[in-house]
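Worked example 4.2. Below are the chains of a multi-component assembly; read each line carefully before continuing.
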Amino acid sequence: MEWLILALIVLLTLINVPIGFALSLATIAAVLWKGTAPLSIVPLNLFSGASSFPLLAIPLFILAGGLMETSGISQRLVNLANSLVGFVRGGLAMVTVVATMIQSEISGSSVADAAAIGKVVIPAMEKRGYPRALSAGIVSNAASAAILIPPSIPMIIYAWMAEVSVAKLFFAGFLPGFIACASMMALCYWYARRLNLPVERRFSVRAVGRSTLEAFWALFIPVVIWVGILGGIATATEVAGLAVLAALVIGVAIYRELTGRQVLQILRESAGQTAAVMLIVASSAVLGWFLTSEQVPQKFARLILETTSNKYLILLFLNLFLFVAGMFLHSAAAIILIVPIVLPLVRAIGVDPIHFGIIVTINLGVGQQTPPVATVLFTTAAIARLPFWDVFRVSWPFTVVLALVTLLVTYVPWISLGPVSWIHW
Amino acid sequence: MPQLLGRLVALVEWWAVALLAAMAALVCLGVFFRYALDSALSWYDEFASYLLVWLTFFGAVVASYHRRHIGFETVVERLPAAARRATELLAEVAVLVFHGVVLYYGWDLAAKMADETAVSLPWVRMGWVFAAIPLAGGLMLLVSLARLAALVSARREA
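Applying the procedure described above to all two chains together yields the following structure tokens:
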């Protein structure tokens, strides 16, 4: 039965039925087949899937990201990163990773992050002699590495599904995020030596000071987010609301690059993006209801535990499972469908749900870089005006690094949980 | 007729924009009341999450019309023209079934909820809140029908 549903979802997706509809359609077919529940559970679960206060953080972070992007923030962040790491060989590649990291502290999604930074750096890198495919690959993979750094929409969805604290999850993401980004930079350096890529500028404290000053207000937003969430003062949703307000004030009153017409346009785009993500979330809840009522999570846990009870082997298996799912599914859908199914197993083998949340987030990030459904890489390939495969042929070593970091984070729980144990509230 | 649908969707889009703006404003207001005035608004998180439901479904209508839902086009794009039209037709019929279920059973559900009220706001009837689902289902049904009609007439010409 479960396999038939899976086959139906794959089939519907292949003929280009939007994922948000396909998940519900498969459930409709299953409910009709079983005949044990009325079809009114479809609208009921669509409703309960979308009606959640924690998930409000999604549209609000999308909106804050859109406002920041249009108000010239991304360019200022690139300038700041340039003054920090531009002196290294292949500096612009490093700048890209650092700028993507800082940008991700404002936007909550890898796609938005990659689009904002990619539009600024990919043309700049081309001017400096970087192969365009390499630039697109670096931005894309850096965005998936940086999703571990809060705020992060996948983490918000995970926390909601697994009933853990978003703040703790955000805190757990910092160190893995930094390690992932540092590994990206190391690979950039290797490429820079091999391709003899240029140095950007000499390091000077004055330049760092000046660009920090110029980016001061841009950096003000992550500070609001950090203090609010990590200080345990406000919820992720409340902080997202404040980030919208701050972005609006900075864009309109301080940088003066944001007009009323642009704000309306950003609202339209954000509403569209929200609907596209939230429809998947709501529809996943419909299928999730069915899987739970069929006791799939319990069956799954029993099936695995009968085969092996080795924690490390099971973690490896879960990683492979997530990776394959991430290759085909949008990350929001993957989290909502998979987390409830595997969580009983995760708890049974004694893995902290916070730690597992970090594994899920970075693992699905790897899936966003691999075909057939590579949402982030598609975005940067489009910005670089290159066919997807041309970029993937160059970018895969970065994705391998990301996968290695996933394993590191999986098998060294301290990287995620150590910092969480320092906070007391 | 297609122009009429376009105008209707444009109207729905402004409605979605208003919902998003209201949501952002409401959350900021909630924060202000909780931290600055130290008297939390008891109704704001429930009301805000209903706004999210409305934004999700009315926004989904707009995304349907502009084909902005997240899907997987790679396979269909590579098919020969005839096979491609056939799969497009099949996919559209499947989508139509979904909208039909959402419209019919969503309406049923909203009618059943007509007398319930929101937990924190006695004047908000749950019927109105749930109504977003069949309304959006109905509008997306129209979008889907228009597209199906276009596909069929294109096939006749070909």
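Take a moment to check your reading of the output against the notes. Residues 2 and 41 of chain B are 44 Å apart (CA to CA). Chain B touches chain A through 57 residues (CB under 8 Å).
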